[in-house]
Design a protein that fits this description.
The protein is an alpha/beta fold. The chain has two domains: 2-155, SPOUT methyltransferase, trefoil knot domain (Alpha/beta knot, 3-Layer(aba) Sandwich); 186-243, tRNA(m1g37)methyltransferase, domain 2 (Trp Operon Repressor, Chain A), CATH 1.10.1270. It has ten helices and ten strands. The model has no long low-confidence stretch (mean pLDDT 94). Belongs to the RNA methyltransferase TrmD family. Its EC number is 2.1.1.228. Keywords: Cytoplasm, Methyltransferase, S-adenosyl-L-methionine, Transferase, tRNA processing.
Length: 245
């Protein structure tokens, strides 16, 4: 997959991309991420990307010209790119949205806003979709862009060493994850559940499913309603509900 990030703080973005799984995925060519400095597409010697808002008001507004210039130079064909604006006004990003975007054949371009807002004409003429990562306001769009790229990349074959890593992730199967343990078996009076040491894969699978359902019921019960329960899942869930009474 190919991503581009348009930002006025490229160093911030590079710092994350040059670490861990993202670094390996980019180096291997499984994904491509280009980072573009919006200031390189300005018209004045000061490389200004913002100005005062018409009508007054607090804060500054990001200018339309740089966004149009970079789009017309790098992505002149609308059919070849999907431009996403990171915005608290956008559609809430979730695992389902990530799975949809992971099948995108076009280059995904992220416009990272700063200051009070972006000139509305950018949204009207260039942006294909606005996306939010939560009902809160961040300083800029860089962190949301990285979050979205990270989540999508985990779904791309070859990014993770073991495909089961994303298949068993929370939300990928519709439920929260089950508890995980590693050595030592005993630690400060706490021990690993015996079933995980039994070698009985059928019992381990059942235990993990029960723990996954339990965690979801306790922490995110609304996810249960959207989950397609198998008969054995419903039986486990009924027992868990009885235990809570």
């Amino acid at each position: 997959m190919t991503f581009s990030i348009v930002t006025i703080f490229p160093d911030m973005v590079h710092a994350y991309l040059n670490a861990s799984i993202m670094k390996r995925a980019i180096k291997s060519g499984v994904i491509n991420v280009a980072v573009h400095n919006l200031r390189d597409y300005t018209l004045d010697k000061h490389k200004s990307v913002d100005d005062y808002p018409y009508g007054g008001g607090a804060g500054m507004v990001m200018k339309a010209e740089p966004f149009f210039m970079i789009t017309e130079k790098l992505w002149p064909e609308k059919e070849s790119r999907k431009i996403i604006l990171l915005s608290p006004q956008g559609r809430l990003f979730d695992q389902e949205a990530a799975e949809t975007l992971s099948g995108e054949q076009r280059e995904i371009v992220f416009f990272c806003g700063r200051y009070e807002a972006i000139d509305e004409r950018v949204k009207e003429q260039l942006v294909d979709e606005e996306i939010s990562i939560g009902n809160y306001v961040l300083t800029g769009g860089e962190l949301p862009a990285l979050v979205i790229i990270d989540v999508i990349s985990r779904l791309v074959p070859g990014v993770l060493g073991d495909s089961r890593s994303f298949e068993e992730d929370s939300f990928t199967c519709g439920l929260l994850d089950y508890p995980h343990y590693t050595r030592p078996e005993f630690f400060r009076g706490m021990e690993v559940p015996g079933v995980l040491l039994s070698g009985n894969h059928s019992e381990i699978r059942k235990w993990r499913k029960k723990q996954s359902l339990k965690a979801t019921l306790e922490k995110r019960p609304e996810l249960i309603d959207a989950y397609s329960l198998a008969p054995e899942d419903k039986e486990i869930l009924d027992k868990l509900k009885e235990e809570r009474k």
